[in-house]
Specification:
seven-stranded parallel β-sheet; globular; alpha/beta; 5 helices; about 35% helix; about 150 residues; Alpha/beta knot
Length: about 150
């Protein structure tokens, strides 16, 4: 088992495409929690992920409740990446069953997502900087989770 990525109600197709590519390259599952802020279907998925979409293991969820229920049933820990995180990423212990949650680009994560997360983790930034692009943040956190869990491919 490897850590996974979940995009909660993403707004920008390009960020979905970037994270599809990231998930495919590292062999991890990516969850798309709808609704999306753009028309989302197989055609959009292929266009956003370019040639990597077919190689990505994508799971779609109708809404956050359905996603959270599936994660609970599988025994997977939900770890929210947030600027309001109580724990810095460099001091957090990731596990192979973690799912890294990324909120929407325009709204972040809802109170329900914050409440459902087992942990809220922040990527430390220089003073005066608010946040990173969601796709970049997802890639950084996934790399750290894979490093800690020895999940990188040989």
């Amino acid at each position: 088992m490897l850590p996974e990525i979940a995009l909660i109600e993403p707004d920008i197709a390009g960020n979905v495409g970037t994270l599809l590519r990231t998930a495919a390259c590292f062999g991890v599952t990516i969850h798309i929690v709808e609704p999306c802020g753009f028309p989302f279907g197989e055609r959009a998925l292929r266009r956003a992920g370019m040639d990597y979409a077919a190689a990505a293991n994508v799971e779609r969820h109708a809404d956050f409740a359905a996603f959270a229920g599936a994660m609970h049933q599988r025994g997977q820990r939900m770890v929210l990446l947030t600027t309001k995180g109580a724990t810095r990423m460099d001091g957090f212990a990731f596990t192979p069953s973690d799912v890294l949650l990324l909120g929407s680009e325009s709204r972040g994560a809802s109170d329900a997502v914050h409440d459902a997360a087992a942990a809220r983790v922040q990527i430390p930034l220089q003073p005066g900087f608010r946040s990173l692009n969601v796709a970049l943040a997802g890639g950084i956190a996934l790399a750290e989770a894979l490093r800690q869990t020895k999940g990188f491919a040989p």
